[in-house]
From TrEMBL:
Subcellular location(s) per record: Cell membrane
Name of the protein in question: Amino acid/amide ABC transporter membrane protein 2, HAAT family
Molecular function, one GO term: branched-chain amino acid transmembrane transporter activity
InterPro entries found in the cross-reference section: ABC_transp_permease, LivM-like
Gene Ontology CC annotation, any one: plasma membrane
Transmembrane segments: 35-53, 59-78, 85-104, 110-131, 138-156, 190-207, 241-266, 272-302, 314-331
Source organism (scientific name): Albimonas pacifica
Entry annotated with the keyword Chaperone: no
Keyword entries, A-Z: Cell membrane, Membrane, Transmembrane, Transmembrane helix
Protein's UniProt keywords contain Transmembrane helix: yes
Domain of life, per lineage: Bacteria
């Protein structure tokens, strides 16, 4: 952990004042902040205008892009911020999706209320899973989460749960219309796009503040040096389990939104391939860089379609080629590539 300016410049008596920040450095920091705000405003304006420009299928794709971005954001909090590796986030996505489907179709509850319930339920499941996983690290933790991802679809097919989950046939969800008379202006796809956008912005704000908070600093300290963090009084067990819970909460909310948008859930929709896709999005976007979730989600939504357009028979091969090319050209993901470009332009 880096020392503050006051700590670095203070004298032996503690009365020395901190050295002033150089004007060039302050101007550069201010310029980066202004540039980031300008980019955010431009992207937000483009996102607000998009549903009125493109057709429903493109709107559906962009909505799913935001859904996957939320799931990648949740995994980034666990892996990028806390340093725990997971191959099982597809299981938390499935829990959130089935929570929405059961509440909407079996219990007749409005879709808005499914989001907090899915978030709380997935937080509890993630926290409870994180407790026994505290003794596992590295590849052993990866294997435990892999087992979770593989077992979840099989549990959803079990006969005792078939009344709720629909078994192998799944559950069909009715797409909600825009409320408050907005259905006269927005169709169902446009409304779900704006609804997902609002939820995504709120969760991104929540994740950003979490990373900058005392809890976020503790999570990063555990990632960088768990022994030093423990010696400084950080309860590593509680923080690591909490990180699992928060990460699962984000991914569960993403699954809830995905079920509402797709209008269907079934066990075979949440195989291990989904967990791999979320992990791929994390690597492509940049591990530890929160805005990279959007770029990673764009990769897993659009690149398979591009590969299929090139060759339907070799779509998997072309997808793998694109993935290897991106990893080779940007080994630290989109975040590392952008930081390198900014540093180069700054010089």
């Amino acid at each position: 952990m880096a020392m503050s300016d006051e700590t670095m410049t203070g004298g032996a008596s503690g009365s020395a004042k901190a050295a002033p920040v150089p004007k060039g450095r302050a101007a550069a920091a201010g310029g980066k902040s202004t540039l980031g705000q300008a980019v955010f405003v431009i992207l937000l304006l483009g996102a607000l205008a998009l549903p009125f420009i493109f057709k429903n299928f493109t709107i559906f794709q962009m909505t799913m892009l935001m859904v996957y971005a939320i799931a990648i954001l949740g995994l980034n909090l666990l892996t990028g911020i806390n340093g725990q590796f997971s191959l099982g986030h597809g299981a938390f996505y499935a829990v959130g999706a089935y929570t929405a489907a059961i509440m909407m179709e079996n219990l007749g509850i409005g879709y808005v209320w499914t989001l907090p319930v899915a978030g709380i339920l997935c937080f509890v499941v993630g926290f409870l899973f994180g407790l026994p996983a505290l003794r596992l690290e590295g590849i052993y933790l990866a294997l435990a989460t892999f087992a979770l991802a593989v077992a979840t679809p099989q549990f959803l097919k079990l006969t005792p749960f078939e009344h709720w989950t629909g078994g192998v046939q799944g559950i069909v969800i009715i797409k909600p219309d825009a409320p408050f008379g907005l259905d006269a202006v927005l169709n169902a796809d446009q409304w779900l796009y704006f609804f997902t956008l609002a939820v995504g912005l709120f969760l991104y704000w929540l994740a950003r503040n979490l990373v900058r908070s005392r809890t976020g600093r503790a999570l990063m300290a555990i990632r960088d040096n768990p022994i030093a963090a423990r010696s400084m009084g950080v309860n590593t067990s509680v923080y690591k389990a909490t990180a699992f819970g928060i990460s699962a909460m984000f991914t569960g909310i993403a699954g809830c939104l995905g079920a509402i948008v797709i209008q269907f859930v079934a066990p075979d929709s949440f195989t291990f391939a989904l967990s791999v896709a979320i992990l791929v999005g994390l690597v492509i976007g940049g591990v530890g860089w929160l805005p990279g979730a959007l770029l990673g989600a764009a990769f897993i939504v659009f690149i398979p379609n591009v590969a299929e357009e090139i060759s339907k028979g070799l779509a998997g091969a072309f997808y793998g080629f694109f993935l290897i090319a991106v990893i080779y050209l940007a080994p630290q993901g989109a975040g590392g590539l952008l930081r390198a470009l900014v540093a180069k332009l700054g010089r």
